[in-house]
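User:
Hi there, any thoughts?
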Amino acid sequence: MATQIFVNLPVKDLNKSIEFFTSLGYTFNPQFTNEVAASLVISDTIYFMLVTEPFFKTFTKKEIADATQVTETINCISLDSREAVDEMIAKAVAAGATTPNDKQDHGWMYGWGFQDLDGHLWEFAYMDMSHLPG
């Protein structure tokens, strides 16, 4: 079995988060989705567990970071083209996200990101390894 990653993110309104990520073209695994958590499928090996804040608090004794005020992480996902990056950001903005940073174009690597409804930062990148410097 391939190594998988499950990133847990606290969310204020699970239904709004599900609606937001569905509008970006993502799906959810119903086996791991209920009223307190939803399994956002990025790929066959990458999943984000969107967890309601009260349920998330049962996993840690620490305070939950307010991602609208502090950066707790930047979740970066690769896409197949520059156009796919731009399309993803356009969908996210149309669904209520904001773009806190400008596009980054380094020739061989292109990226742009958004801040989701809960303030989590997401980056999407395209890398053309045939033009990798050095």
User: Anything to note?
Assistant: The chain is about 20% helix and 30% strand. The first strand starts at residue 5 and ends at 11. Residues 65-134 form a domain with the 2,3-Dihydroxybiphenyl 1,2-Dioxygenase; domain 1 fold (CATH 3.10.180.10). Residues 101 and 113 are 7 Å apart (CA to CA).
